[in-house]
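Quick note —
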Amino acid sequence: MSPEEFRKNAHELVDWMADYLANPEKFPVKSQLQPGDLLNALPAHPPEKSEPDSQIFADFKDQIMPGISHWQHPMFMAYFPANSSYPSVLAEMLTATLGAQCMLWETSPAATELEQVVMTWLAEMTGLPDGFHGVIQDSASSSTLIALMCAREKATGFRFNEEGSNQVHPLVVYGSTQTHSSIEKAVKLAGIGRAGYRQIAVKPDFTLDPEALEAAIREDIRNRKIPCAVVATIGTTGTTAIDPVREIGEICRRHGVWLHVDAAYAGSALVLPEFRWMGDGLELADSLVFNPHKWMFTNFDCSAFFIKDTNHLVNVMSVLPEYLRTQSHGKVNNYSDWSIQLGRRFRALKLWWVIRSFGVDGIREKLRFHINLARLAERTIRNWSDSEILAPSHLNLICFRFRPAERHETDWNSFNEEILKRVNASGKLYLSHTRLNGIFTLRMVIGQTNVTEDNVNSALDTLMQVKNQINSEPPNRK
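Predicted structure written out below.
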């Protein structure tokens, strides 16, 4: 492809991208494909000869797009969002064009130093206590794994790294029954093992119970196990429950246990002064993660990981072969020593672009708008005679279910499951679910970048239409 052909094709793609981002609603929010549809439609073997870009782009639109669920669709209210924005996309285009591998300061000084600047900005924007130092990771899952490896080495005096798992007593990591599954995965990957993961009971509001945590730690100490780390959550995936960080942190301090705070989604709301209460006690934490790629309009992947002791982090993560030694070593941050990956993308550019384009006030305005829309939806759902809110709604997630009087209580779980199935099959709205105390729970997250009040009202109307349709049908007794 010549530079002239690239320019022509790029203009065509950008025109399509602009149209797509301006009107994603022309697509069904959730892909309507069935398993194997695309596999069966694509050639079994690669082309021997070059194919024209016009044909490749046409096939993208005709074959690939039907298999995409549209996370930038304003009716995407499932899971937590993976938000994007125009400034983020522009910066990502530049990142792809530069193609820089930013593993060391030497390989692109601007990438390293810009990352240092934007992470300092984020710490200021979110009101983090003094002493935290930030680095951009690919995901909260990787950030948590790094935190647990740091905790592991602190607990064992670096014996685990040097001697392996057989030379130390069993380690234990603690989270609540609502903690994200990535914590269990990180416990396994860090070599601690699933047997070393304790899920602590939660209170009725689904927050971790500090008394139960204290009791579990004391019991493990009596049994000659080593309490290694506690993961507190600011905004659990199921309900956005806010764990009591200060109480948990004080327990960790008493027992010399690493405290990692998972704020992957809700951490963005710390930008709002009225939500700083969520971070009470963060000065007691050793590490923290939140994802600007979830709710700060910076497209995936961009995970902000903060840690107190960077020397400890480097000692855990760094391996320095001769071919990576440079004249600047020891004078600058080499973020490959702060990460699992040696190779690193220039992620800081899009975060820098987003913060400058929106401004802190603009980010706050949009977050508040999303939260206010969620309050509107919650009030509407509460006013429905046959609905029930199942968890406190701190931010922009509503957990609820229908309890139709016409049906027996034993049918309610299957009734709500059928609602979810039909709503998602409609292509008009995309929701997800969880189970709370055995109850099948519908989750509605109102946080897509450009969602409007009209979208929220349309989502509520769709829910009512589907609910009424199912309610008019006789129960399916099996």
